[in-house]
Amino acid sequence: MKLKITTGSMTVAAVLANVLVSSQVHASGFALIEFSGSGMGNAFAGAAASAEDASTVQFNPAGMVLLNGEQMVGVLHYIRPVADFSNNSSTGAAILGSPALSGADDDGGRDAYVPNFYYVRDINEQMKFGFGMNTPFGLATQYDDNWVGRYHAVESDVMTVNFNPSLSYKLDDKLSLGFGVSAQYVDVILSSAVDFGSLCYAALGPAACGALGATPQAADGFATLTGDNWGYGWNMGVLYQFSKDTRLGLAYRSEVEHDVSGDADFTVPAAASFVTASGAFVDTGLKASITLPDSLSASVYHAYNSQLAVLADITWTGWSDFKELRIVYDNVNQPNSVTTEDWNNSLRYSLGANYRLDEKLLLRAGLAYDETPIPSAELRTPRVPGDNRTWLSFGAQYRLDNEFTIDLGYSHLFVSKTQINNTYESSIPTLAATLNGKYDAAVDILSAQVTWNF
After folding, report:
1. Among the listed residues 26, 148, 154, 152, the one whose alpha carbon sits nearest the alpha carbon of residue 99
2. Which of 32, 89, 130, 211 would suit a FRET pair with 187, their CA atoms being 20 to 30 Å apart?
3. Does domain 2-453 match CATH 2.40.160.60?
């Protein structure tokens, strides 16, 4: 992500306000696929066609027609990411002589627990009702306050909770349709350090700033942006059964638009107290519009015999609409900001297999390749240091009795070596610091699911 500043005024108030625009506002969406413990063991291959439990409410509501009676599913995922940054000559602005950025390397990964809940019941012989609750988008990175990339990011926490009632209808023995609506809550926290020393050089000059003790990288403050909102969307699916052993699933989820409102809170060091006198860097409200992307999945399920089944899936996510984020501040001394993103649409490919050992135990395996939407090292930030990922997954299902089934799944995500070379785009040249380096990243996910048939 890059930040673009369009303000031309170089008055003290405008310069100070532009620092917030150029150095503090980063936001992004990150799509999660951790929606079931059963799917985890297959790397979610064939998820829109398998329809083996109530989690099909999320993957393809048309698949509810394959379930009998009432069913409830509870899932918990433990996600352990590593995002270990190694600095490679990160520098301050060229106009300052490109000094090395101070601070240590850091690992921004933060462990997380992600729950899911699903419920399906009969309405009549042809129609089913389902309800799902999960987290379709999420982001959590956390660095030390004094790490080398502190001016780019410290904490980034984006959480969504999606409530999704759905209906499915069986037209005939082969074709079924499904439809759902979503009420989605989003909560955002973004924080960064503020280099008030570099700001002072632009506003007052080196001599005055030296007397104040506000020199570059020696008078850091802090900014935290928070906000939340409810948004609404819809989803639909089609399931076609060529035979009892082979089926095709298609599923679509709409974009969800969020008009976020919240607060900007600032900590200003004593050496830079002149900034608040100008009317900038005073706690204020904010507003922003965020559009979380739509997606389209095509899945196939085929059982060769009573023991072996294979699954495949391709999913498209429409990240190309994520071109920019505009922030509007209630404080008139802080002009609106524009964060340029320019992400690409992405594809996810997966293959999986199930093997039934006996009537109680089913084994799973899966492989997937997940493309990153981030187009380049220059547009990558430490808030979302993602890259292409390869999934290797295993799982097992054990049927306790006619009512209860337990699923366990594990995935390791191999992440490509990730380069970052992000420079602030700002009308204030002293703030054009560049974070240059490499991420060594990986993710481990462990999932547990309980399915209860009433």
Report:
1. 148
2. 130
3. yes
Strands (E), 38-147: 71-87, 112-122, 127-134, 138-142
Strand partners, 300: 248, 312
Structure tokens at 274: 């002149």
Q: If you count them, how many residues does the chain have?
A: 454
CA distance readout (Å), 350 to 63, 107, 176, 248, 368: 19, 29, 24, 15, 4
CA 451 – CA 434 distance, rounded (Å): 50
CA distance 145 to 155: 9
Sequence ranges of the domains in the chain: 2-453
Q: State pLDDT tens for residues 167-225.
A: 999 999 999 999 999 999 999 998 999 999 999 999 899 999 999 999 999 999 998 99
Bridge partners of 448?
76, 408
Secondary structure element (H or E) that encloses residue 208, with its range: helix 206-212
Query: How far, in Å, are 55, 102, 388 from residue 59 at the CA level?
Result: 7, 46, 22
Count CB neighbours of 402 within 10 A: 7
User: Are the beta carbons of 383 and 139 closer than 8 angstroms?
Assistant: yes
Alpha carbon dihedral 369, 375, 381, 383, in 10-degree steps, equals -40
Q: How sure is the predictor about 339, in pLDDT bands with cuts at 50, 70 and 90?
A: low
Residue 282 burial (C-beta neighbours within 10 Å; 0-12, 13-18, 19+): middle
Contact 51, 71 (CB under 8 A): no
181 class by beta-carbon count within 10 Å (0-12 exposed, 13-18 middle, 19+ buried): middle
Q: Is 42 helix (H, G, I), strand (E, B) or coil?
A: coil
Residue carrying structure tokens 């960064």? 192
- Map residue 39 onto helix, strand or coil: helix
What's the pLDDT tens digit per position in 397-438? 999 999 999 999 999 999 988 999 998 777 778 888 999 999
**What three-state secondary structure class fits 432?**
coil
Instruction: Evaluate whether 291 touches 256 at the Cβ level (below 8 Å).
Output: yes
Query: Whole-prediction pTM value?
Result: 0.90
